Amino acid sequence: MHDEVIWQSFSIRHTELSGSSDKQIIAQWHDGDHTRSKTPFLAWYVQGGRLEIVGRHNASTEPKNETSTTHSLFVDNSYEGETWTDYVIQSRISHDPAQDPFVRIWRNGQLIVDYAGPLGYNQPGVTDYAKLGFYHWYGGNDWDLAVPTRTVWIRYAGLVADGDGSYTVESIEELMG
Fold first, then answer.
1. CA dihedral 91, 75, 86, 166 (to 10 degrees)
2. Which of 47, 58, 79, 103 is the S-S candidate for 51 at Cβ 3.0 to 4.6 Å?
3. What pLDDT, on the 0 to 100 scale, is given for residue 1?
């Protein structure tokens, strides 16, 4: 994913997540180095009726959460998620500003994130990957027992490298059906 233009698309719907007080991730981009337990460099967090999309970066060859820079890229304080929501993401991931990194995110056809700047970790030889679905972690994020069941549906998931610059948000949306 590093230093090349990547497109991702997915449609997501869930129940119960917006009603819980704990925090979940419903989509994330992560680096493949699991030895340092770093948080994802791009993540969709849901807590209560709030959705926040967060980006992170670190130029150190030994990145840690404590030394990474975090950017809140988008916040929706009235997020429900109980209907299908389409996302299209275009990006060039790099910790190095000289590589012109960026991320643009469209939600239901509307541009909600247009960020230019470093994104990701300096991990030569490590493969980044995208994950979709419900993710809950512990350590200060106890499960809200008032909401014991949570369900997440995903459809139209895709990830493509755009080596020749031929894709557009419209062509990716068209692939989603």
1. -20
2. 79
3. 56
CB 162 within 8 A of CB 171: no
Q: What is the pTM of this model?
A: 0.94
63, 123 in Cβ contact below 8 A?
yes
Tokens of 106: 């469209």
pLDDT digits (tens, 9 = 90+) for 29-64: 998 877 767 889 999 999 989 999 999 999 988 888
136 residue type, one letter:
H
- Mean of the pLDDT values across residues 16-21? 83
Domain that holds residue 88: 5-175
Number of domains the chain contains:
1
Q: What is the pLDDT of residue 41?
A: 94
- DSSP for 9-37, written as a single string: EEEEEEESGGG-SS-EEEEEEE-S-TTS-
Residue in 8, 29, 11, 12 with CA at minimum distance from that of residue 158: 8
Evaluate whether 18 touches 81 at the Cβ level (below 8 Å): yes
Angle at 152 between CA 146 and CA 157, to 5 degrees: 160
Backbone angle region of 142, left / alpha / beta, with phi > 0 → left and psi within -120 to 50 → alpha: beta
Q: 85: domain CATH number?
A: 2.60.120.200
d(CA 107, CA 105): 7
Structure tokens at 176: 């989603």
